Input
Amino acid sequence: MDPAADILFMLSSFNLRVQFVRKALLYGRAGVTLFPQDIRFSEVYACALLLDGQIDEAATVLAAGGEVTRNMSYLRARVMLQENPSLNNAQVALRAYLHQGDLS
Output
């Protein structure tokens, strides 16, 4: 990995951890732009967007993310639950998260 990517990821994840959401958004957006192949930035950026209440933007970032990881499945389930919190959608989202499957 690129040392610049590692430092940028460290800054974004640290700021997210200490609840500096705006800074995490900034570093996450920079990471997604500079290193689009690194899935870590999509995860951190989507999580920061969810914490900031930008559900639609988080859904866009998650849809653009290529590889399906456990974290991406969790974030997709959270987005799905916040977009439509019905019982049926909750079951679908949780099953997809537990099986790392597709949310369709």
Q: What stands out?
A: The chain has a mean pLDDT of 86. Residues 22 and 48 are 8 Å apart (CA to CA). Residues 3-17 form the longest helix (15 residues). The two ends are 33 Å apart (CA to CA).
